[in-house]
Amino acid sequence: MALYAVAIGSNRRGRHGGPQAEVRAALAALRPVAVAPLLPSAPLGPSTRRFVNTAALIDTDEEPPALLARLKRIERDFGRRAGRRWGARVIDLDIVFWSGGAFAAPGLCVPHPAFRERGFVLEPLLHIAPHWRDPLTGRTVRQLAHRLRAVDRRPARA
Fold first, then answer.
1. Three-class SS state of 155
2. Is residue 35 within 8 Å of residue 71, measured between CB atoms?
3. Catalytic residue, candidates 92, 142, 153, 157
4. In whole angstroms, what is the distance from residue 125 CA to residue 128 CA?
5. How many C-beta atoms lie closer than 10 Å to residue 93's C-beta?
6. pLDDT digits over 36-58, tens only?
């Protein structure tokens, strides 16, 4: 069995209801062993709708490509369609970590390449996996979140 950390987010109404209802329905589909609180976050890119984010730990015998295929099926079942990067979405499911360490294949990189710069991923992970180590940097989720907060507090340069 392998343990995965999956980031979950929504900022659009879907067949289950508003973003919080969509995230809760996705959690029910995933059957996680641990779930972080649902947290609001600002959108990245052109979307103007605020997100609801969480993270979940999933215990499964699936290899990373098989789990990714399952996550993509869930996204399609929820009504997610290919479209503009960083646009509004009914549900977004991303593999952040895998207990097997790092993994790379076409279309999949674990750990998620951008998670270190995303508070909306790190903050929920702090609740369920603060000591999980990034296999590439060796830093814990707690350390990565602390570093990101410090960067976010830096004054802007003129």
1. coil
2. no
3. 92
4. 5
5. 24
6. 999 998 877 666 788 899 999 99
The reply to whether 50 falls in a domain is yes
Identify the H or E element spanning 71: helix 64-77
- Two structure tokens written together for 67: 């789990």
Choice among 12, 24, 80, 116 that is catalytic: 80
Summarize pLDDT for 103-141 with one digit per residue, the tens. 999 999 999 999 999 999 999 999 999 999 999 999 999
Residue 52, domain extent: 2-114
- List the structure tokens of 60: 């499964």
Q: Which of 94, 133, 134, 154 is catalytic?
A: 94
When divided into structural domains, the chain yields a total of 1
Q: Name the strand (E) or helix (H) holding 108.
A: strand 108-110
Going by their DSSP bridges, the two strands 108-110 and 103-105 should be labelled as antiparallel
User: Tokens 């990565």, residue?
Assistant: 144
Residue 32 inside a domain? The answer is yes
In a domain, 21, yes or no: yes
| Catalytic residue status for 94 | yes
**Six-digit token string for 62:** 């699936």
Q: Which of 12, 89, 116, 118 is catalytic?
A: 89
**Token reading at 41:** 């976050």
